[in-house]
Amino acid sequence: MMDREGILARDKRYVLRPYTGTVEHETEDSIVVVAAEGATLVDADGRRFLDASGAWWTNHLGYQHPRLVEALSRQARTLAHAPLAGATHESAAVLAEQLAAMTGLARAFYSDDGSTSIEVAVKIVLQYFAQNGAPERRRFLALPAGYHGDTIGAMSLGALDAFTHVHAPLLFPVSRAPEPDAETGFARTFAWLEDELARDGANVAGVFVEPLVQGAAGMRMYPPALLTRLAEATRRAGALLVVDEVFTGFGRTGTMLACQQAGVVPDVMCLAKGLSGGMLPFAATMVSERVYDGFRGDKRRALMHGHTFCGNPLGAALAREVLAIYEEEDVLRRAAPKMQRLAARIAALGARPGVHNARALGMIGALELGEPGYFEPLGQRACALARASGMLMRPLGNTVYIVPPLVIDDADLDTMLDVLAHAVTHVV
Ligand SMILES: *Cc1c(COP(=O)(O)O)cnc(C)c1O
């Protein structure tokens, strides 16, 4: 096997990195991962790093879960890929049934990642109204500072910032609710959406939200009751509610789906990340019976959208095994005390001077360091300290957060919280 230096040299010379300045990429040494298990990455020198970033928010069941590795290789030995047009296969068909049961929705449209699941939702929502007598419904409403992915449609729905404004000419218009304020928090944000739906709901096609937690915005959390009311307002207006469960799904917030805490079954739901156990790209856009009915008919009414690897058997087999693990290993019930432990430790950290807005939900803990503003370096410094203590943590500006696997063992969870506390108290 190639040594650490050989890998790093080639990485720096040939890889174009996501979200990484070339200066940072070419001068700083990344962790060279050679193996992983549970919550831990192992580097080329045999050093172990606890991964508090959850493999970019996908690692709910731990790295290399033996049952997932086995399900993947079993599927690979029999059928690694088959087209989903003019052909079908057991994994995609049975998984769709299972996802329908899990979400309360009717049909699964498969694609490759969170961003494409959103693109599909955008096209479904617009086409639904266009071919069912309401072509004037073309408006999209969204939360402020949302994140739905990096493709053009997903970016349009998300917030523009210093990094993405360069692509603004490509984006379609979206009406975004105002930012929460210090006094009422998200109440005024949601009140704006409700007012807009009452005022101009007949022109609204879709309302797009991340349920309960806005991940990339900095783990911003809002109460379930606001989502419940928004769902009612959307329904009254005859528009479609699209819930992006890409980050929150699969137990991240304590329930299988975050929208369950609000008692909401949306019209459209996007699933990715945890869906395939964090092992490969795989996504689904779930739609209700009402939406599906809007596509009944011949090819002129069909959803003219598809991806080469739509419903890929490897991803579908993994997702089926993921669902089996949640049920048979009682993942959510066993995670509950760990979530409480995490919440208590985060709350304690929040009492320290220089730390504010400490918050936790499910297996997410987050807090703010120092004053707001993306280019303040406190978050970066905390993460550098964590790394020196053997933990990978990635900041969102001055928000530092941890998203451990739901199945993390208690010792690893305590270590993760200890390292977080150490890093935080040293930078503020
Ligand atoms: C990560 C994320 C996406 C995008 O998913 P990708 O697989 O990275 O394309 C969309 N929505 C939310 C809420 C996410 O956290």
Helix content: 25-40%
Count of alpha and pi helical runs: 14
Q: Radius of gyration over alpha carbons?
A: 22 Å
The tally of beta strands, per DSSP, is 16
Q: Distance between termini? A: 42 Å
Q: Give the biggest sheet.
A: 7 strands, mixed
Element-by-element helix/strand order: HHEEEHHHEHEHEHEEEHEEEHHHEEHEEH
Ligand inventory reads: pyridoxal-5'-phosphate
Q: Per the principal axes of the C-alpha atoms, what is the gross shape?
A: globular
Helix-and-strand structural type: alpha/beta
For this entry, what is the oligomeric state of its chains? single chain
Question: Unreliable segments (pLDDT under 50, ≥5 consecutive)?
Answer: none
Percentage beta strand? 15-25%
Strand order of the largest sheet: 4-12-11-10-7-5-6
- Average pLDDT figure: 96
What keyword list fits this structure?
40% helix, binds pyridoxal-5'-phosphate, 14 helices, 16% strand, 428 residues
Secondary-structure blueprint of this entry?
Elements: H1 4-14, H2 22-27, E1 33-37, E2 40-43, E3 48-51, H3 54-57, H4 66-78, H5 90-103, E4 107-111, H6 114-130, E5 139-142, H7 152-157, E6 175-176, H8 186-200, E7 204-209, E8 213-214, E9 220-221, H9 224-237, E10 240-244, E11 268-271, E12 283-287, H10 289-293, H11 313-328, H12 331-350, E13 355-361, E14 364-369, H13 378-388, E15 391-392, E16 399-402, H14 410-427
Parallel strand pairs: 3-15, 5-6, 5-7, 7-10, 10-11
Antiparallel strand pairs: 1-2, 2-3, 4-12, 8-9, 11-12, 13-14, 14-16
Bound molecules: pyridoxal-5'-phosphate (PLP).
